[in-house]
Structures are given as structure tokens and as C-alpha cells.
Automatic annotation (TrEMBL):
This is Translin. GO terms for cellular component: cytoplasm; nucleus. The keyword Lipid metabolism does not apply. Belongs to the translin family. The keyword Metal-binding applies. CDD domains: Translin (cd14819). It holds the Pfam family Translin. SUPFAM superfamilies: Translin. Mg(2+) binds at residue 89.
């Protein structure tokens, strides 16, 4: 995973160059691309550190501004949309991790996604595309909970958490 993350980070250099040429173009035209790039940056950061990347860090990775006043920038809506795409991909990763025999990763993903869901619940989202994307997060939470529940039923979560009293 670290080698793949490093390779992905190298590609962001090319992205920075391309975005530099787009700074003078109409911003709304590139929303979908920026949302996908936010997702990719967030996914790489999650794989490296299992943390949520900040909007400022994504802007830095992409070589654009975080603040509107400074020019071509990363809108908060684009950032949040990319983070919601991350949640969907992490739900898939939880299932694939179990298939690969990694029983602890789904538990960590579950904790992360539940914290993410808690944060989104604090927002007052209007009835727009971001709200619809957020509604999809509920299904991602449910999918991951089912994976964790299946691990528990099969007794595999003991291996993931170190078992009772630290035994495996």
C-alpha cells in the first residue's frame, strides 16, 4: 500500500500542472473533476494514515487555493462531495479486506465512517446534490455495520481486536 500511495502522489504532480493551466478558465466547468481529485487525495491520505484529509491539504496537494478570494480554489461543496465518494469506496474496501483476510481494517473503517457520518449530521444541507450524496452515506454506514456484524458472528472480530483479555 505505501508504494501504491507514493505512486499516486507522483501523479498529483501532473494534476497540479494541468490545474495551473485551468486557473484562468471558468471554475464551474471543472466541478466533477475536482470532486474526483478530492476523492483520490482523500483515499491516498486515508490509506497512508487512516485520517481525513483537510480541504486545505487537498488544495495544497492539487496546487490550487483553498480560499475563493485567492483565485481558482477548492469549493467546500466539492471537498465534501469528494469525501462522500471516499465513504462509498471505504465501504467496498471493508468487504474486500475481509475477503483478503484482514479482519481489523473493517473495524477501523467503521469507526472512521461513523465519525464522518456524525460530522455530516451537524451540517444543514439543503435539498441539492450534496444532500442526495449524503443520503447515500447512510447505506455505506449500514454496509460496513453488516461487515462488522458478520465478523462478530463468526468470531473473527476477536482476532481483529486482540480477543478478550488480549488473547487471540
Amino acid at each position: 500500500v505505501p508504494k501504491k500511495c507514493q505512486k499516486a502522489r507522483e501523479h498529483f504532480g501532473t494534476v497540479r500542472t494541468q490545474l495551473e493551466s485551468l486557473k484562468t478558465k471558468f471554475h464551474e466547468h471543472w466541478r466533477f473533476v475536482l470532486q474526483r481529485l478530492v476523492f483520490l487525495a482523500a483515499f491516498v491520505v486515508f490509506l497512508e494514515s487512516e485520517t481525513l484529509v483537510t480541504r486545505e491539504a487537498v488544495a495544497e496537494i492539487l496546487g490550487i487555493e483553498a480560499d475563493r478570494e485567492q483565485g481558482f480554489h477548492l469549493d467546500i461543496e466539492d471537498y465534501l462531495s469528494g469525501v462522500l465518494t471516499l465513504a462509498s469506496e471505504l465501504a467496498r474496501l471493508a468487504v474486500n479486506s475481509v475477503t483478503a483476510g484482514d479482519y481489523s481494517r473493517p473495524l477501523r473503517i467503521s469507526t472512521f465512517i461513523n465519525e464522518l457520518d456524525s460530522g455530516f449530521r451537524l451540517l444543514n444541507l439543503k435539498n441539492d446534490s450534496l444532500r442526495k450524496r449524503y443520503d447515500g452515506l447512510k447505506y455505506d454506514v449500514k454496509k460496513i455495520e453488516e461487515v462488522v456484524y458478520d465478523l462478530s458472528i463468526r468470531g473473527l472480530n476477536k482476532e481483529a481486536t486482540g480477543g478478550v483479555g488480549g488473547e487471540k
